[in-house]
Amino acid sequence: MTAVEKKLVEAASDARRNAHAPYSGYKVGAAVIDEKGKIYSGCNVENAAYPEGSCAEANAIGAMVASGARRIVAIAAVGGKDKIEACTPCGGCRQRIAEFADDKTRIVLLGDGNEITSYSIDELLPASFSL
Ligand code: THU
Question: Is 3-124 a domain of CATH 3.40.140.10?
């Protein structure tokens, strides 16, 4: 694990502690690092009206954009119900990451043995839509 990966995974784990997931019980934290080294985090926020819930990655990316940054250097996600498992981003979040990613962007996941898996956006969302 690189120093940046470690920092990002820690930020994602911290955010996961605040996840609001009373319906699924599946808590997720995410953290994005931008070109200036600034970190933005988010957690999933579920809602009694289920479709209104939002993903951790979406909220972390929203925080990055609200701060004026536009490029994801890396994004980490830490998720799981009773134990941490590699939580690969949902389809919608892959598209959200793609909006601010380039071929160097790393998507970093923490697995159940504390191991890191990292992907490019092209691996997770090949032949993606863009305007
Ligand atoms: N979830 C995320 O926050 N990120 C993902 O990449 C996958 C799923 C959330 C949505 C929902 O609150 C819970 O995990 C179970 O689907």
Answer: yes
Domain ranges of the chain: 3-124
Global pTM value? 0.97
Kindly list the protein residues whose Cβ atom lies closer than 6 A to any atom of ligand 1: 21, 24, 26, 28, 44, 46, 53, 55-57, 87, 89-90, 93
Q: Please classify residue 77 by burial: count the beta carbons closer than 10 Å to its beta carbon, then call 0-12 exposed, 13-18 middle and 19+ buried.
A: buried
C-alpha to C-alpha distances, 26 to 34, 87, 125, 129, 130, nearest whole angstrom: 27, 10, 23, 29, 30
β-pairing, 84-85 with 74-80? antiparallel
Query: How do residues 72-114 score in pLDDT, each as one tens digit?
Result: 999 999 999 999 999 999 999 999 999 999 999 999 999 999 9
Q: Identify whether the C-beta of residue 77 lies closer than 8 Å to the C-beta of residue 56.
A: yes
